[in-house]
Design goal:
The complex is a heterodimer of chains A (about 300) and B (about 190).
Chain A lengths: L1 H26 L5 H17 L10 H20 L15 H21 L4 H32 L4 H6 L6 H4 L3 H12 L23 H26 L10 H22 L5 H27 L1
Helix pairs in contact in A: 1-2, 1-3, 1-9, 1-10, 2-9, 3-4, 3-9, 4-5, 5-8, 5-11, 8-9, 9-10
Chain B lengths: L1 H26 L3 H21 L3 H25 L15 H21 L13 H10 L3 H23 L1 E2 L2 E2 L17
Antiparallel strand pairs in B: 1-2
Helix pairs in contact in B: 1-2, 2-3
Classes of the chains: A mainly alpha (about 300), B mainly alpha (about 190).
Chain lengths: ~300, ~190
Amino acid sequence: MLLVGATLGLGAYAVAVLDGVGARVAAGGRLRLMDIAAGPLRRAALLARTSRSTTERPDLQAWALAPAIVAGMAAAAVAAVPFGPGIAVADVDDGIVLFGAAMAVVMVGVYLHGWSANSPMPLVGGYRFIALALSYEMPLALVLIAAALPAESLAVGAIVESQHDLWNVVRQPLGLPLYLVAGTGLAFWGPLNGADGPDLAGGTSAEVSGPALLAWELARRFVLVAVAVVGAAVFLGGWQGPILPGPAWMALKTLALLAVLVWAGHRLARVRLERFVVVAWAVLIPLALVDVFVSGALAL
Amino acid sequence: MSESLFVDVAFWLFGGGSVVAAWLVFRTDSMVRAAYWLLASFAGVGVVMVVLNARFLGLVLVLMMAGEMTIMAVFMVMFMMNPAGLNPMTMVHQHRQAKIAGVVAFAGLALVGVVAEFPDRPADPEGEATAELGRELLGDSMLIFETAGVTLLATMIGSIAIASKRGRFGDAEDGSAPPPLDPQGDHS
């Protein structure tokens, strides 16, 4: 329980710090350590004290429920990942399916967040997220299946142990890139931020402010952290590595993936959703199928 | 002992919650809420399956239903011409037929539940339910499942081909392009 909370909390803070560094580097500004370290906390404190806004006749229960669904599903996904041999909340024997199911329910949370505001921009953001989610779900599921093949198990711990000799990022070169594209979509981050994009004045969060916005922004970063944690376990060998203890390797690998995801958010332009849908179905799914077939043949 | 108590409590909690959520599907006044109450009901069944050691099936149920209920909500909102699905509308109609169908279905299922002889084969709690399921799907029953799967896939592809040949913005092969500013102009 503490493990999941600490992972998500520290991870979300790491995302915010990396985001601050990325923004300053992208803008060519100077890196002031205090600003970068304290900035996210200041913004969180400000949001927590800002008054809430509301709309005409929203669905208040669903609106309040949405960030809880998204954050809860991120926590469920992290709970299935072991941070060292035997150090897991629940390394269940269908862990990777649990991750898939949790990430499918994230779609419900994001759509509800957009729909329940009863306002045009959030609603468009919610619909955009459905189109995005239906496009990345298949490549995501396929690369995870491919990663489970050499392990002959759906448990995340077994997948980590199957990478004892060779990490999946090398053994299945298509896996991690496709996974990161899907993960960027899952947290509607950076180039795939169709749901909460600035062109929709904030999309699903256009009408929320104050503590509700804080909860939503946290939940979204929790999903990004969950994506990085699972990616580190499934593709980067998890806790395995020389000298340092297992959890330290997990933390380093998770941070590395978070840095890549946040960097992509600052360096890549936002993609138009209809283009991404075409690319996802015509390019990413066939590539993911190749990944499954090649991995299956190698695992035989 | 405490684990079996936990299983019992979870079973009744989520089983009961599932029934309540299913009832709320018909008590709410919005398509989207109805779809997600139905999802809550399915998720409850999924949790019951998980605590009864059918973890894979329970999780896959939640995974599939989350996507399907969302798609269903979107389609219902589109067909009902109800811009956001927030306008109140009743979820029940054809009361007499619905009552008859409900009573008949309940009586039938209750009869089966009371009269049928269920096999008493306690499963091994440590058993590899997922592996056994895989052997069943790709072993003895493969022909059945593959036939059903290919048929469904062909149906989906066929319905997309029929539906998307020519859309509002031109041929489906052209991809999505906005309508031209000049009514007689082409799409470029």
